[in-house]
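User: I'm new to structure prediction. If I give you an amino acid sequence, what do you actually give back? Let's try with this one:
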Amino acid sequence: MSDIIELLPDSIANQIAAGEVIQRPASVVKELIENAVDAGATEITVNIKDAGKTLIQVIDNGKGMSETDARMAFERHATSKIRKAEDLFKIDTMGFRGEALASIAAIATAELKTCAANSDIGVHLIISGSEIEQQEVISCPKGSNFSIRNLFFNIPARRKFLKKEATEFAHIISEFQKTALTQPEISFTLLHNSTTIFKLPKSGLRQRITDIFGKKINKQLVSVNSETSILNIYGFIGRPEAAKKKRGEQYFFVNKRYMKHPYFHKAITLAYDQLLRPGYSPPYFLYFDISPSKIDINIHPQKTEIKFTGEPEIFQLLRASIKQTLGKFNIVDSIDFNQEGAIHIPYLHKNTPIVEPKIKVDTSYNPFEQEEKKQGIYGAANYGNFERFGKNKTTREKQNDKNWDKLYAGFDAETTATHSPPKQQEIEPKTNYYGKFFQLRNKYIITSVKSGLMLIDQKRAHERILFEQFLTATEDKNIPSQQTLYPVNIELSVADFALLENQLEELHKVGFDISVFGKQSVIVNGTPAFLDNPNAQELIIKLIQNLKNQTNSIDNSNEEMAMLMAKSAALGYGKKLEPQEITALTDRLFACQSPRFSPQGKKVITIIDFEDLEKLF
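Assistant: Good question. You get back a string of structure tokens that encode the predicted 3D arrangement of the chain. For your 617 residues, that looks like this:
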């Protein structure tokens, strides 16, 4: 039998490594910026074209490289930071594994111009698909100039799965921000298609956060500073009123390296206990200084997941630091521990007359009669109130009943409603009864059908309705715009503004009238006509957030935009609906082509069989 196991060629091995290290253009930006930081640069410029598909250029004024180092930098596992295994636990710089440049050169055309600080001449190197195409001596400024062109040119499948330009550029901005937030002493510039997106001068940490996220955030931040024997924690947290429904401006950094850590995020949310609405997260920018020997940063290809020694202890320290900060800035009520639980005794002057307390006694009180009255409240009297929904209805209400029965034909709906007297414990303040159906917890619409109970998710139902409306309108190319009473001026962060600006043409097609006003502001003059009295600012903020979170790409752009708009404009959970609003929502839902599922494929309707209900009793 002949041998079948062979060593992979370097070009293929590099492409495999690239699959782990380089997932999209933003990955290239991340690696090159980190290399520039490690090179001691004080000025870093990032130039992007077509969201990185055409060009990614990173220029720095760092210490540069010699001709030999420039060539070795593109070899796999070549690094200047590790000499022995123990060095893995003493890393205090960014990149260190020596795979980034080799991986980039394997799937793109990489060009490098670099000159060492102690040299008068530099080197020009071009590598494409792991093959050296050019190497020569040139004259160039001190530092390094990397230009990456035609990313994934030799892996068409990977290039095909890149998202829209706006989505890919949003990822680039995210990586740029993460590094800029760790290095306020370095000047950063980001350009996209010759337009300056960020120009961040050397500054302090608070000013750097403000330069990136806008002036508005400056008033929302309070400083954190805690020094312990285990680690030092510093940075900023947001006031409770700055919390948002979806996570966005939450950043952890350890030794000036960005990291994700859900466990530590939980410590922060616990520190804000009773200060935030459910589902909301505050903004925070927290930095950990800890000995490199107490962390392991080599557990993930992207080096964003980090393990700590003594995580439970750090959890408690972090939580205590946040609570201390909230108390220090009077964000939580102060507690006088000396008076806590003490009995209040009023002060009496010596001339105050003493009045004997009098107690009134109801001699006619009969507990048995009172019990009967209670039964009456929750018995016949209450039953009569619910019977009222089934009798003495107006002609319009009776006609609505007929429409309701038609809509439920496919669900074996019962044609008449009967209501048994509700039990005392069933009546809850957050449950709104409306005869044939009711709203539960301002989240679900519930009604009885022949086979059991039908539950409708009101948010997903509204998403389905809006999705089909937007889709029909975009296909017909006829979405009128409803002008706002007064133009709405919205100030955005640089990143959010760039993301929205790339979508203005598409938004105009679906009925928005939005114009640019200044460098970071837009004016909303109109919204899609079939949206019911939308809050223009809230709608735009939701739209931007959904653009950031967009992960799936749909071939049909009309469907993609309709899905995005439906998700942004749909009513949220916690919205109390009036009876006529519930009727309108259900009528419109069952008029849809696919009422059972949301645009994302999630259940809108579910039915609990009577047999399952019986088992509960």
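You can read the tokens as a compact description of the fold. Here is one thing that stands out. Confidence is low (pLDDT under 50) at residues 333-344, 371-394, 411-435, 551-556.
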